[in-house]
């Protein structure tokens, strides 16, 4: 079935686009949308069955699609895939660094290797993809890159590793924008909040349940869709975004602006400078143990 994009048919007819993690979830959706707009889309990932199945459904829709198997943590595999793309399809005009992931754990329980694994996947993997695309094609011919990160501006509780990695990508995006603009490369990032789809189902059911229960904390009152992420990516890759360079688009329904706290009771000691405070019972409660001291001072 043809993808129902809001963009003009044929918009990407001259493009060859590589979407990492394109076999599932958000990447699959982006691959469908770009291909529906005329691009030749190459989807990449580690598991060949997922790539083959998505490629088949895209072919059934009449799209131009190819696959390449790679682990974005392995530079040799990345180079091999890019060589294949350039030799078979003649160019690489768009790169979507979508592959990534993490596990949920309190920061204190992340082992050194657990930390390294997530940094290698998200930060180093994205960096190596950008670096290799530059050397394989874009440094000489230009191109457009979108990095999928995660809404990490205020950190992500229980995902300290990925929050740090994604913040690194957002900063990398700024540096590469400045260094690579003279080469005709435009690079931006997109930071989704919680998106309903295959990604969330990979977590233990308790994590999924907590996420589902907390949907009301989002000012939009719901989570996002893969198609909503995809249309923003497609816009950033399109000629209409020609003057957008080096930014990160936050796409989380406003969650980042909501201050709803994970913490119900404060255990952080209070500093008062020795002065009494004019307040009432209602606000004293918010200071937890300090309530007693506060009362005696008032
Ligand atoms: C703004 C909010 C956004 C939040 C919502 C985000 C949603 C998404 O991103 S959707 C997700 C996309 N998909 C995924 O995240 C995939 C799920 N994750 C994984 O597949 C894996 O966790 C991995 C890719 C991140 C790592 O896999 P792998 O390379 O196979 O690593 P190992 O299993 O060998 O483990 C390495 C290292 O990490 C420790 N570890 C793994 N899982 C956990 C865990 N649940 N808790 C604690 N530690 C874990 C593991 O023990 C190893 O460390 P050592 O034991 O010290 O060797
Ligand atoms: N869903 C959500 O709520 C959010 C998702 N994100 C991010 O969006 C991106 C897509 O997630 P989503 O579609 O939801 O989840 P999925 O788990 O469906 O997608 C992750 C994709 O990345 C690929 N991948 C993982 N590791 C590697 C690797 N080492 N090398 C190559 N490919 C790899 C996987 O394929 P394979 O296993 O075959 O390699 C898979 O296709 C991820 O970076 C995710 O962290 C960010 C914020 C929120």
TrEMBL record:
InterPro entries named in the record: NAD(P)-bd_dom_sf (IPR036291), Peroxisomal_t2-enoyl-CoA_red (IPR052388), SDR_fam (IPR002347)
Keyword Phosphoprotein assigned: yes
Catalytic activity: (2E)-dodecenoyl-CoA + NADPH + H(+) = dodecanoyl-CoA + NADP(+); a (2E)-enoyl-CoA + NADPH + H(+) = a 2,3-saturated acyl-CoA + NADP(+); (2E)-decenoyl-CoA + NADPH + H(+) = decanoyl-CoA + NADP(+); (2E)-hexenoyl-CoA + NADPH + H(+) = hexanoyl-CoA + NADP(+)
Recorded metabolic or biological pathway in which this protein acts: Lipid metabolism
Subcellular location per the Swiss-Prot or TrEMBL entry: Peroxisome
One cellular component (GO) term of this entry: peroxisome
Signal peptide per UniProt: none
Domain of life of the native organism: Eukaryota
SUPFAM superfamilies according to UniProt: NAD(P)-binding Rossmann-fold domains
The protein's Enzyme Commission number: 1.3.1.38
Keywords annotated in UniProt: Fatty acid biosynthesis, Fatty acid metabolism, Lipid biosynthesis, Lipid metabolism, NADP, Oxidoreductase, Peroxisome, Phosphoprotein
Pfam families for the chain: adh_short
GO-annotated molecular function: trans-2-enoyl-CoA reductase (NADPH) activity
Keyword Transmembrane among UniProt keywords: no
Single GO biological process annotation from the record: fatty acid biosynthetic process
Record's subunit section: Interacts with PEX5, probably required to target it into peroxisomes.
Family: Belongs to the short-chain dehydrogenases/reductases (SDR) family.
Purpose: Participates in chain elongation of fatty acids. Catalyzes the reduction of trans-2-enoyl-CoAs of varying chain lengths from 6:1 to 16:1, having maximum activity with 10:1 CoA. Has no 2,4-dienoyl-CoA reductase activity.
Protein's name in the database: Peroxisomal trans-2-enoyl-CoA reductase
Organism encoding this protein: Paraglomus brasilianum
């Amino acid at each position: 079935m043809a993808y129902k994009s809001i963009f003009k048919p044929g918009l990407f007819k001259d493009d060859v686009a590589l979407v990492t993690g394109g076999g599932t979830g958000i990447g699959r959706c982006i691959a469908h949308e770009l291909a529906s707009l005329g691009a030749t889309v190459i989807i990449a990932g580690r598991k060949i069955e997922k790539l083959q199945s998505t490629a088949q459904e895209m072919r059934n829709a009449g799209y131009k699609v190819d696959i390449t198997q790679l682990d974005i943590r392995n530079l040799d595999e990345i180079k091999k895939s890019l060589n294949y793309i350039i030799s078979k399809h003649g160019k690489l005009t768009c790169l979507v660094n979508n592959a990534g992931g993490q596990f949920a754990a309190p920061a204190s329980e992340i082992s050194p290797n657990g930390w390294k694994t997530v940094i290698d996947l998200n930060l180093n993997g994205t960096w190596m993809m950008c670096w290799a695309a530059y050397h394989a094609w874009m440094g000489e011919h230009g191109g457009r890159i979108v990095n999928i990160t995660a809404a990490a501006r205020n950190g992500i509780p229980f995902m300290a590793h990925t929050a740090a990695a994604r913040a690194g990508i957002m900063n990398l995006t700024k540096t590469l924008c400045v260094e690579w603009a003279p080469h005709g490369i435009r690079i931006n990032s997109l930071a989704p909040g919680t998106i309903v789809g295959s990604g969330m189902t990979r977590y233990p059911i308790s994590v999924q349940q907590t996420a589902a229960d907390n949907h009301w904390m989002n000012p939009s009152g719901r989570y996002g869709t893969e198609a909503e992420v995809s249309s923003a990516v497609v816009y950033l890759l399109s000629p209409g975004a020609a003057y957008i360079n080096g930014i990160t688009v936050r796409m989380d329904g406003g969650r980042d602006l909501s201050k709803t706290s994970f913490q119900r009771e404060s255990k952080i000691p209070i500093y008062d400078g020795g002065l009494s405070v004019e307040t009432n019972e209602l606000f004293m409660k918010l200071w937890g143990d300090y309530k007693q001291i506060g009362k005696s001072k008032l």
